[in-house]
Amino acid sequence: MSSPITSQQIVDQYFLEHRAKVLDIAAFLDRFDRAALAQGVPESAATSDVRVRALCAALDLLRDGKPERARRALELWSDHSTAPIESAGMKGAIGAVPLPRD
């Protein structure tokens, strides 16, 4: 499979944009941690929010060196259940599904 652009060209063109995105995520996680600490939330409870846990799980996935990271991140965040639900409520609006705890 060939690409019309080289890996060096990809880095040259997109690195700064993605560096900023990583810094944005780091700042979000720092704000979350500071807020939890200010509220007296124990460290273990600070990761109780399903969205934050799903984001951190996706970050781990990005570093695993395996291909198709985007597809796997979307699958990680997707609800794979097939049974109909009585009421959607916020189910699809939060962008993540509960993950098993470590």
List the helices and strands and how they pair.
Blueprint: H1 7-38, H2 43-46, H3 50-62, H4 69-77
Describe this structure in words.
With about 100 residues, the protein is mainly alpha-helical. The chain folds into two domains: about 1-45, no CATH class; about 50-80 and about 95-100. The protein has four helices and no strands. It has helices at about 5-40, 45, 50-60, 70-75. Helix 3 (about 50-60) runs antiparallel to helix 4. The termini are far apart. The mean pLDDT is about 85.
Poorly predicted runs of 5 or more residues: none
Estimate nothing, just give the exact number of structural domains.
2
Helix % is 55-70%
Which class do the helix and strand fractions yield? mainly alpha
Order of helices and strands: HHHH
Shape: flat
Mean pLDDT: 87
| Annotation, overall tally of beta strands | 0
Q: How much strand?
A: under 5%
Largest sheet: none
Number of helices: 4
- Ends distance: 37 Å
* Cα-based radius of gyration, to the nearest Å: 17 Å
Give a brief description.
The protein has helices at residues 7-38, 43-46, 50-62, 69-77.
